[in-house]
Specification:
Helix content: 40-55%
Organism: Streptosporangium lutulentum
InterPro entries: DCC1-like
Protein name: DCC family thiol-disulfide oxidoreductase YuxK
Strand order of the largest sheet: 2-1-3-4
Number of helices: 6
Structural class: alpha+beta
Number of strands: 4
Pfam families: DCC1-like (PF04134)
Order of helices and strands: EHEHHEEHHH
Amino acid sequence: MTGQPVLIFDGDCGFCTTSVRFAERRIGIHARVTPWQFADLAALGTTPDRAGHEVLWIDRGRVYGGAQAVARLLIAAGPPWSPLGFLLRVPPFRWVAHGLYRLIADNRHRLPGGTPACARPVDPR
């Protein structure tokens, strides 16, 4: 594994793919970007279940998911994005970011660019 961070996203999800492409163009992603379906997840220290549940930022063996992955992406992008990334790491902003991320991730199939392939399987509980 190289020293470059890795951004893992759901390549089957139209909303996720559109979001990552937007971030590449507008924010600048300083990482290797790959859909989880084509990544060696075990070598990266994660699982298909987690990668299908949330976007992942993997850096130096540490795996950050969801809103914290977005925070790390923003920090790595540098100014003017990094202050927002640092803000998303501290309570109560961290809690709000987590709730907003889950709301969006759980409803991504309903959002622009979303398709039925974006929907997560229903929890059997």
